[in-house]
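Lab notebook, bench 4. The sequencing result for the construct came back, and we need a structural model before the next group meeting so we can plan mutations. Quick request posted to the team channel:

Model the 3D structure of this chain.
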Amino acid sequence: MPVRKPDILFIVLDTLRRDRLSIYGHAQETSPGFDAFAGRAALFERAVAPAQWTIPAHGSLFTGLYPGAHGLTQSNSVLSEMNLTLAEILRSGGYHTIAFCNNPLVGVLNNGLQRGFDSFYNYATAIPYRPYDHHKSALRRRFTRWFRPYARSMGNAFAQSDALFRAALHPLLTPIWSKYINFKGSTGVSLDDLAAYWGDYHRGGAEKPLFAFVNLMGAHLPYHPPRDLVERFAPELKGDRQAYTFMRRFNADGAAWAAPPDEPYSELQTRTLNAFYNAEVAYQDMLLSRLLDALRASGALENTAVVLMADHGESHGEHAIVGHGFNVYQELVHVPLAIHVPGMTPGQRIGVNVSTRRVFHTLLDLAGVPNLLDAHDPNADIAGLSLVNLLKDGSGRDVESATAFSEAYPPLTFLNVLEHRSPSVIERLRLRLVRRALYAGDRKLVAEGDRVEGLFDLAGDPTESRDLQGGRAAEAEALLRQLSAFAGAHSQAYRPEPGEVSEEVVEHLRALGYIE
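Done. Here's the predicted structure in token form:
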């Protein structure tokens, strides 16, 4: 009897900072659920996100390519149909593919990130699409079927219009749309739906293994965690009207979510932001822990590969930045990553630099599906780039030699907001430039455009507060040349014409309806 392929559960904890998880050294217990999972999995100490915000980061997770190669760098970008997605390849390899998504940038925009899913359940919209909608009354089902396309069209209109996007961020409007379009979705509802779907699917005797992608938005602005959790992490804020007033105003000012502050935050403001953020992390962790405990108790995880990670982090004023739009410092691109592989030794800690774009290769490797990437594609080495190799022998040897790369294409929608809100900050911080980072062992080089912005020793300076380039100019220039070569090799979009790829890939594209 053939061995059944593993089920796959791929969970992205959107906007989750690595340094706020207790297993990575945070002083407060914010993440007992994540920590417990990591103890039964492999924990990656130096996972590097290929991009600093949702759309390009998910483009890399779904294609294995860096942003410069897949081209999905703006809100109005569309992924080339010649770049096959993780879900498309898994579906062609016999998987049933589903998504439970709480992020409208992934689940609503027509950018190609939904390609390949048999069902894409979306919670971040005025009319959520859930797997159990058939329980609604016939009238409600008719209404949602009629209204859902309009809601989706409105979301795409705001993403593609600078004027509409800017207007939506006004403090009078942000609280309205963020609430009534379910901007952050519903973590608890989506996880409950996933647990029910998982159980129903397997109880029904399904023949295909299951691939489930989940995006959770608990750690994303606006912050509205349970008050008792805020006061657990910052008891001194209890009854502090000034702190709660600041947070209420910050939540309402959508433009402030990515606008560098005119002046550094005060000590109280920083403490307030951190407390509310940590409370959101802890609340999401509690809900996630409930899901993982239920799946494990049912035996569902015995033959399931699980990836638990963040797409990127968040800035709370570090390096003069708020949000996640404009740089590649650690608070944005050094992310949590834990992988559980059935049958492998638990509790491993992997200490080499790895790009999280390689989750794509890892899941395809674990699924054992045919490699549909063309041999000319620099991304095609599924077996070599799989992170499973680091789990097999624990030697730290790696095909990319502990090198990772990240690039930050500035989101044009937020640049337009800043043009009207605070134009001087764009020139002062050179926000129009693409930032890139190269990780080589303990060294990290940050470049803005074609010049060095900073050289850091992450082992001794994890917050990147001491720029070494003044005393190590030769080393900085050598790393800049290495970065430029790396960027050049990974920033040319691989979008071949059908006649330039193998017949197997052509047949797959034809079956998907992309070519005649």
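The chain has 20 helices and 14 strands.
Will bring this to the meeting.
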